[in-house]
């Protein structure tokens, strides 16, 4: 993780850049470790371990701007690297909007309290990790002649960064992660080879689900047997909490400053307008303890805060860093999302399912695309036909088409079952009047 030597080097690099001609500068020194293991059937199929140390420099020179990264952290080499970067930057065009954030917006706390780093990662052995993989494979391996393969994967790692800039910002972050997954494939009818997966992830070792992953992956694959198309039509659509972020992601992407400024967004000039169903409230809540994505400040050092992104269907903000806020002549907010949370409803998934007389439960998306300027989309889906509140037939090779704003205006109900292992805490959502194409 970040050491005193790392911090001293970052300060030296900042001072050196300023001495060599930068009017402003930011230095980000980062470290990380990644370990991943994969067990396929009865054999260890992959073992990868890596570590990384590097530095990114953001240089502001005579009204010009550039950024450079290196993993060569020797002072002599770093000095030459910085000097060459400054010289190269002077060849670029001036850009009046490139500057560090207003110091008043910077985070000024001590960086503690979110509890994002688990020291257990320092004591876990390879044997501990491989035992998890074997156990989850053995939950289903050899239990069904139709099984083609059973694969389990484990990964963990650490991330740390230290940021210092000429506006006085000086702080660090550190976090850890653990994940366990499984995937199974089976022989289906004809040449069909349905497969599915399950996974769990956590920043804390003691909160990671360690058993049942392989069994869940198998059960999800089993229910795919006999998949087929049904007739095209307009159906209610229930999207579960594992898949619904695929439909929200294009909406969030359309809120970024670069998309707005480059007119590559279907949400331009929509602040304080009702854009989706009043059932939808989307909150960015960055200070949830131990949450994936939690943080006190963004990559500019700007202090994060709890914000309403969409409130009862009304768009309240864009994600605007210093640069794009300047170009748009708007007030800056924050660079990107932290922990996105959809305000929950009062029904769990089974209760939502029970309300659907006829519709389609979408369990996954297979390809597709959307137009970033209009919001029109076409996505491939798989899932189940719902009749009288129950899944009755496995489906695949179908598509949904329409416009994202129309889709989100047709939200009928929101569940109360988000997967809190993700930085996007989005529950299952029921949509009305969705166009499906099949036979």
What is the topology?
Elements: H1 4-19, E1 24-40, E2 43-61, E3 64-70, H2 75-89, H3 126-138, E4 147-165, E5 170-186, E6 195-202, H4 213-222, E7 233-239, H5 245-253, H6 257-261, E8 282-284, E9 307-311, E10 314-315, H7 322-328, E11 340-342, H8 349-354, E12 358-370, E13 376-387, E14 390-403, H9 404-409, E15 411-414, E16 424-425, E17 429-437
Parallel strand pairs: 7-12, 11-16
Antiparallel strand pairs: 1-2, 1-4, 2-3, 4-5, 5-6, 7-17, 8-9, 8-11, 9-10, 12-13, 13-14, 14-17, 15-17
Helix pairs in contact: 1-2
Describe the structure.
The strands form 3 sheets. A 6-stranded antiparallel beta sheet has the order 3-2-1-4-5-6. A 5-stranded mixed beta barrel has the order 7-12-13-14-17. Strands 10-9-8-11-16 form a 5-stranded mixed beta sheet, with no helix packed on it. The protein is globular. Helix 1 (about 5-20) runs parallel beside helix 2. A hairpin with a 4-residue loop joins strand 4 (about 145-165) and strand 5 (about 170-185). It is built from 9 helices and 17 strands. The protein starts with a helix and ends with a strand. The protein is α+β, with helices and mostly antiparallel strands and about 450 residues long.
């Amino acid at each position: 993780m970040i050491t005193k030597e790392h911090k001293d080097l970052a300060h030296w690099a900042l001072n050196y850049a300023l001495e060599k001609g930068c009017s402003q500068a930011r230095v980000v020194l980062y470290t990380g470790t990644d370990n991943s293991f994969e067990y396929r059937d009865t054999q260890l199929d992959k073992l990868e371990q890596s570590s990384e140390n590097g530095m990114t420099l953001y240089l502001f020179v005579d009204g010009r701007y550039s950024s450079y990264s290196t993993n060569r952290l020797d002072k002599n080499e770093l000095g030459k690297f910085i000097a060459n970067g400054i010289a190269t930057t002077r060849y670029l065009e001036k850009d009046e909007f490139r500057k560090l954030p207003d110091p008043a917006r910077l985070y000024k706390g001590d960086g503690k309290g979110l509890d994002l780093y688990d020291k257990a990662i320092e004591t876990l052995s390879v044997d501990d990790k491989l035992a998890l993989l074997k156990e989850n494979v053995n939950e289903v391996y050899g239990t069904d002649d139709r099984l083609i393969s059973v694969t389990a994967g484990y990964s963990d790692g650490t991330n740390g960064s230290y940021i210092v800039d000429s506006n006085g910002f000086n702080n660090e972050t550190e976090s850890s992660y653990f994940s366990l997954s499984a995937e199974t494939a089976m022989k289906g009818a004809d040449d069909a080879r349905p497969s599915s997966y399950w996974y769990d992830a956590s920043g804390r070792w003691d909160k990671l689900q360690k058993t049942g992953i392989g069994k869940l992956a198998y059960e999800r694959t089993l229910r795919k047997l006999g998949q087929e198309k049904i007739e095209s039509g307009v159906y209610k659509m229930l999207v579960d909490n594992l898949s619904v972020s695929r439909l929200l992601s294009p909406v969030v992407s359309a809120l970024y400053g670069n998309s707005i400024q480059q007119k590559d967004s279907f949400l331009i000039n929509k602040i304080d307008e009702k854009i989706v169903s009043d059932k939808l409230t989307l909150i960015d809540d960055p200070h949830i303890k131990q949450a994936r994505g939690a943080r006190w400040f963004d990559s500019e050092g700007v202090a994060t805060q709890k914000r309403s992104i969409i409130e009862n269907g009304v768009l309240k903000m864009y994600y605007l860093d210093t640069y794009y806020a300047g170009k748009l002549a708007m007030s800056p907010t924050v660079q990107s999302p932290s922990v996105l949370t959809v305000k929950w409803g009062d029904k769990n998934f089974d209760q939502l399912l029970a309300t659907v007389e006829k519709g389609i439960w979408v369990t996954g998306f297979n390809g597709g695309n959307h137009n970033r300027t209009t919001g029109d989309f076409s996505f491939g889906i798989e899932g189940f036909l719902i009749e009288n509140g129950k899944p009755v037939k496995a489906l695949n090779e179908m598509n949904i088409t329409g416009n994202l704003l129309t889709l989100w205006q047709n939200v009928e109900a929101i569940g109360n079952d988000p997967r809190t292992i993700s930085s996007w805490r989005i529950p299952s959502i029921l949509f009305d009047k969705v166009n499906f194409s099949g036979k």
